[in-house]
Amino acid sequence: MRTNHLSLAIIASLISLTTFAAPRLTVAVVVDGMRQETLDQLRPYWQQGGLRTLSEEAYQTTVRFPHIVYGGSECVATFMTGTTPSEHGIAADTYFRRSDRKPHAILEDINEQGIGCNAALSPRNLLSATIGDELRIRYGERAHIYALGLDANSTILMAGHAADGCCWLDAATANWVSTSYYGEQLPLALSEWNAGTRRQELLARTWTPRIDIDLYSAPTEQEKKKGFSYAASVSESSANSALESLLLRTPMANTMVIESALALQKQEHLGEDNIPDLLCLHLSTRSPLATTDQLCSAEQEDMYLWLNQDLGYLIDQLARIVGVQHLRIVVMGKPLLGQNTESLAAARMPAQYFNVDRAAALTATYLMALYGTERWVDGGYGQSVYLNRTLIEQKHIPLPQLQQQVAAFLMDFEGVEAAFPFTEALGSVSLANTVNKRAFGDVVFTLQPHWLLKANDNTVLDHVVEEDPIVPVMIWSGAYQAFPTGINDATQIKALMTGN
User: Could you tell me if 494 and 77 are in contact, meaning their C-beta atoms sit under 8 angstroms apart?
Assistant: First the structure.
């Protein structure tokens, strides 16, 4: 395991505010796309299982995020650190790098290598301490910290800086892979999983409806006629992006995470002594054809039915091995795709698209007209325009002057609600909690409701349509624990996970 690269003094000051409670094993579960309204709607379907147990026995609340949500990993970082993107530094999955004027993965790290994959990633750009980091500082190597998941970014952010192991499923091979930041090889249990037969058994399954199609609450017309059927298997050498993405959108992927986690618990004896351990899992309710987090198809409903079964198996097994009184399960929803754009269109409120590349190009032309034919703009990305600071300095033009002119220019664009120089953006509450110098440029803008960001390649950069997504949180603890009332902020969940 690599040394934590955060300042130990800063982390120690955070730890002084945290008191870890009795559970020997805390399991933190983030589920992509899970919504409270869907849980309420489907509750009659599960007479038993994990979601049934949580609905009856867990502390339940719903939370909002005090920052802009893009359907990326920023929400995971907020849950795990108890801070906002302005502090933890993860405002979205990607950021614009001025040096080459291109977007890069927020966790990209050229000093690391992928293990079983080509992903050079690390949590070094995560600036706040996670729950696992604080466990490591308090208990040293005696505390065991692992994270498994479907997505590299989410899994790494759950693992934090100090995890013993962090692995995610490779979409092309269904193997567990990792990054050298956490060590030079996979945990033994996951290496054995990659080489074992259970992986192949799950890949050989064909996913069909669990119940009669007419019994689902929201089947599409196509599903009513033909149902649905997906083969989970993938080719070891396939480069087909559609095929690669399919595996991670089937129930079998969640099952792989749950079963691998139990194998890891057994191998590493997690929760079997008096030192608190942490196991982080990243799962999903996103089905192959889903374009929204709302329940609009039988296959997406089926994802919840399988998730209920898998979570039930996880809770039952861990309660048996670790002991109910020593176990805490925390399940959190993560906004992913937002509202159904078709429903908005039917209500005569269609989603519209703002092309940030085009806005940056027009801004460049505008500045050329004012100051001469030079490259005044490095690019546009996310909710920002990035100015060529080197040129501005060489021309001895005050940067604030250009920022104000660009902000005024952007205000004339259809769909723009407000535009500010970077420092003035801090005056907006949601932006103040969101902006940081890595993820935002010189001029920041916001869009009117139901406007989405799009690049020239038609990539939609802002996936979540809701202005203020609300997600469910459930905390199940075998030992008695009193929870405070009025929890409504995602930054508060970290304290609840640690027992405060």
Answer: no
DSSP H/E element including 311 = helix 298-322
Q: Using CA atoms, how far apart are residues 481 and 492, in angstroms rounded to an integer?
A: 16
How many domains does the chain contain in total?
2
Residue 297: the pLDDT is 93
Q: Is 240 exposed, middle or buried (0-12, 13-18, 19+ CB in 10 A)?
A: exposed
Q: Nearest to residue 421, comparing CAs of 437, 438, 407, 440?
A: 407
**Residue bearing tokens 């479907």:** 150
144 and 15 in a common domain: yes
Q: Specify if 417 maps to a domain.
A: yes
pLDDT (tens digit per residue) in 28-75: 999 999 999 999 999 988 889 999 999 999 999 999 999 989 888 999
Residue 349 scores a pLDDT above 50: yes
Number of Cβ within a 10 Å radius of residue 239: 8
Q: Which two tokens stand for residue 61?
A: 């609340």
Is residue 132 in a domain?
yes
Instruction: State the pLDDT at residue 235.
Output: 45
**Whether residue 325 is found in the same domain as residue 416:** no
Distance CA 459, CA 456 (A): 7
Report pLDDT digits (tens) over 320-335.
Answer: 999 999 999 999 999 9
CATH of the domain at 398: 3.30.1360.150
Q: Are residues 332 and 365 in the same domain?
A: no
Can you give the residue range of the structural domain that contains 136? 8-338+466-497
pLDDT digits (tens, 9 = 90+) for 243-252: 445 888 999 9
Is 363 inside a domain boundary? Answer: yes
- Considering the chain, what is the average pLDDT of its residues? 87
Query: 0.85 exceeded by the pTM?
Result: yes
SS3 278: strand
User: 345 lies in a domain?
Assistant: no
